[in-house]
Amino acid sequence: MFARFSALAILVALVSASAIDKRAAPVNQMVGYATLNGGTTGGAGGPTTTVTTLAALRAAITGATPKIVQISGIITGDGDTIDIGNHTTVVGIGSNSGVTGGGFRKGTNVILRNLQLSKSPAPTDLIELQTSTNIWVDHNTFTSDLTHDKDFYDGQLDMNHGTDFVTVSWNVFQQHFKCSLVGGSDNTGDEDSGHLRVTYHHNHFLEINSRTPSLRFGTAHIYSNYFDNVLASAIDSRDGAQVLVEDNQFTNVVDPIETTLNGGFAVQRSNVFTNTTLEATIAAGTLTTVPYTYTADAASSVASIVVASAGAGIVTGL
Ligand SMILES: *[C@@H]1O[C@H](CO)[C@@H](O)[C@H](O)[C@H]1NC(C)=O
Ligand SMILES: *[C@@H]1O[C@H](CO)[C@@H](O)[C@H](O)[C@H]1NC(C)=O
Question: Which segments constitute the Pectate lyase domain (predicted)?
Answer without folding.
Answer: 44-256
